[in-house]
Write a structure and sequence with these properties.
The protein has 396 residues and is an alpha/beta fold. The chain is built from eleven helices and 14 strands.
Length: 396
């Protein structure tokens, strides 16, 4: 009886020895994905319309939420996402922080900075992929395309085209254009002029705002006289800092709507966007950031999610491979805008619908019905392939 028991024990031990390697799966290595967020936060100077300040953490909070979202799905694939951040008040300090991250092995960057700083970063980090979530500069999408940069923030041309399409549908064809004195204001005004020409609309008069006084006390007296000119259907305003544009609605010489940087505004994202699952994104963001999500937040969010989607598909974090995939048609992205989003192969701009909003309501979405395009209606917004002198798909 003892011999039988010992024999059974030996057999069991042998079976355990045979089965253990098969039953115990080898330890899978988790794929670590490190993404750097670079924020340029200069002192913008005194604003003449500063009742409701812009959030100082715009962009950063969107990137943080995207890391949370990416880890929620990534853990099933053994992908772990980490965000490292640097926010600086000058370009040199931001460049230094970026180079430190690069030395530590980071090759994927989300950048919320103006065009000049983005160019510096692109040149300093040639083996990295930078996703632009902060500059709407049109030259970056038309003639000065950077080989290692993709754009998730809409360009000024996209915003202006989205607005012009809506105004064309409403047959508000005569524009009074009022622009501020800054370089950004003038760039926005140029985008509006291009859009007017593109869609057959007419600028009947142009005026440049050159006053430096606070309009809170004098708008009712000054704005009607300032906007007195040839009759117009709508006032288009280019005031990106918000120095005077807020005081144009209800103060114009003719009783006309105001649109552009104030009034009816084209934007990449807004609190009032709620359809196609956007309400859930809004709620997650508000629970984390304790404020509304804006266009910079969304641009940073979709930038991180673009990287995560590419990593999921490729199963690696190689910056060049992610860039190549993004510029192909094999990386459709869900941006809660009712259509699959994708990057244009010629300039790296993310195709996306543009909401047209007033402060507390969504008015419309562009592209408008009837504005067709041979390949994608989304390409009726911004610079199309024939208008661009670069082609990133053929640029290594």
């Amino acid at each position: 009886m003892l011999r039988i028991s010992q024999s059974l024990m030996l057999v069991a031990a042998a079976l355990c020895g045979l089965l253990t390697p098969a039953m115990a799966s080898p330890t899978d290595t988790t794929l670590q994905v490190r993404i750097a967020y670079l924020g340029y936060t200069p002192d913008t100077g005194p604003l003449l319309s500063n009742v409701i300040p812009e959030p100082e953490d715009a962009g950063l909070r969107g990137a943080e939420l995207a890391i949370t979202d990416s880890n929620s799905t990534g853990r099933f694939l053994k992908h772990s996402y980490e965000l490292v951040t640097a926010e600086r008040a000058d370009s040199d300090s931001l460049l230094s922080a970026a180079q430190t991250f690069h030395t530590e092995g980071v090759r994927l960057f989300v950048v919320n900075a103006p065009a000049a700083t983005l160019r510096q970063l692109s040149e300093a980090l040639p083996d990295s992929l930078l996703l632009n979530a902060g500059s709407a500069d049109d030259s970056l999408r038309r003639s000065q395309c950077l080989a290692n940069v993709l754009h998730t923030l809409p360009s000024r041309a996209m915003l202006a085209d989205a607005l012009a399409q809506f105004l064309a549908v409403r047959q508000w064809t005569r524009w009074l254009l009022v622009s501020g004195p800054t370089a950004d204001d003038q760039a926005y005004a140029e985008a509006l002029k291009r859009a007017a020409k593109r869609f057959g609309l007419r600028i009947v008069a142009e005026k440049t705002w050159s006053f430096d006084n606070d309009q809170r006390r004098s708008a009712q007296a000054e704005m009607p006289l300032f906007t007195q000119t040839t009759e117009y259907d709508v006032v288009l305003v280019a005031d990106e800092r918000g120095d005077f544009g807020e005081y144009l609605p209800y103060q114009t010489w003719y009783p006309r709507p105001v649109a552009g940087t104030q009034g009816l505004t084209p934007t990449g994202w807004h609190k009032t966007v709620e359809t196609y699952g956007a309400a859930q994104l809004q709620k997650r963001f508000e629970a984390q950031a304790k404020r509304w999500m804006n266009d910079r937040d969304f641009a940073a969010w979709i930038a991180v999610r673009s990287i995560a989607s590419a990593v999921t598909k490729l199963r690696n974090t190689d910056a060049q491979a992610i860039r190549t995939l993004a510029l192909s048609d094999q990386l459709p992205l869900d941006g809660f805008k009712g259509r699959k989003l994708s990057f244009r192969s010629w300039n790296g701009q993310l195709r996306q619908p543009i909401p047209l909003v007033q402060p507390r309501a969504l008015v419309s979405n562009s592209p408008q019905e009837g504005f067709l395009h041979p390949s994608s209606e989304l390409d009726s917004l911004g610079y199309d392939r024939p208008e661009v002198s670069c082609d990133l798909a053929t640029t290594p």
